[in-house]
């Protein structure tokens, strides 16, 4: 009995050590001990070619000059709905990376799992504006039709026992692409997360990503200048003045409910389908 008690105490101490380490990485405002324990205990869904397609990536990577480092951009969020600036910022981040000498060989856009998005909308008493992952995924597909290098990453919509944080989703994508590159005899690619400065400030992304050894490109928003810019960190880029307009998905929902035009806010096909999905057709 004493041995069992000691083993349980050591297991608990090990969990505490891991939690303490996580607390150094995850910002205190976002850190929750019980959620972290659940996070470690439960596996995520597997990634496949169906969830994370590689057709465009394979072609571009095979054509990448040997003297350039191949990069894949990654953007995620609720994206309810995906708007024009979401996509425009990926195009701007691509141009910025290539000015720095990298070759962008692909990009992925992901919408967060319903475990997170539904809860967020319920807490904000906005469930009438909620759309499930399948609907948001459809809107992303429409938004990316004119951007051949971008693909939907549907992995976060797979049945998950827990919500996967944005940085963990990026790490999962990076590990998956490493394995795919190794299996197919290709060079490995660097995955760079593209985030707005408002999220970067809230979650201290510059510090977090440095400790997690993840790369990022931060797009400054007009109303949220970056509070902690990187200090000569080549793995964290800042794209100043990236937003031509301070659009938000909430703005698109409000315009729709008010019966106003979504021109200049959503891709026309996204706007049409968005109206249909929320029952505001016409």
TrEMBL record:
UniProt name for this protein: Cytidyltransferase-like domain-containing protein
Residue spans crossing the bilayer: none
InterPro entries given in the database record: Euk_NMN_adenylyltrnsfrase, Rossmann-like_a/b/a_fold
Gene3D superfamilies assigned to the protein according to its UniProt record, in alphabetical order: HUPs
Organism: Aureococcus anophagefferens (Harmful bloom alga)
């Amino acid at each position: 009995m004493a041995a069992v008690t000691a083993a349980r105490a050591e297991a608990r101490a090990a969990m505490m050590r891991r939690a303490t380490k996580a607390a150094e990485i995850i910002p205190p405002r976002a850190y929750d001990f019980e959620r972290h324990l659940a996070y470690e205990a439960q596996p995520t869904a597997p990634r496949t070619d169906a969830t994370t397609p590689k057709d465009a990536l394979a072609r571009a990577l095979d054509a990448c000059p040997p003297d350039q480092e191949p990069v894949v951009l990654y953007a995620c969020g609720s994206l309810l709905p995906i708007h024009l600036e979401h996509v425009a910022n990926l195009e701007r981040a691509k141009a910025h990376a290539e000015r720095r000498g990298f070759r962008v060989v692909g990009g992925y856009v992901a919408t967060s799992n319903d475990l997170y998005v539904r809860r967020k909308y319920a807490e904000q008493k906005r469930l009438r504006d909620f759309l499930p992952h399948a609907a948001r995924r459809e809107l992303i597909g429409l938004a990316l039709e004119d951007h051949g290098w971008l693909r939907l990453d549907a992995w976060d919509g797979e049945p998950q026992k827990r919500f996967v944080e944005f940085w963990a989703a990026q790490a999962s994508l990076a590990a998956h692409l490493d394995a795919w590159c190794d299996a197919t005899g290709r060079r490995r690619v660097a995955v760079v997360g593209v985030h707005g400065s408002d999220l970067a400030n809230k979650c201290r992304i510059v510090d977090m990503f440095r400790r997690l050894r993840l790369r990022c490109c931060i797009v400054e928003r007009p109303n949220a200048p970056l509070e902690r810019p990187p200090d000569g960190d080549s793995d964290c880029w800042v794209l100043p003045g990236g937003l031509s307009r301070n659009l938000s998905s909430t703005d698109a929902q409000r315009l729709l409910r008010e019966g106003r035009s979504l021109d200049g806010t959503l891709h026309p096909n996204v706007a049409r389908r968005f109206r249909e999905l929320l029952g505001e057709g016409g």
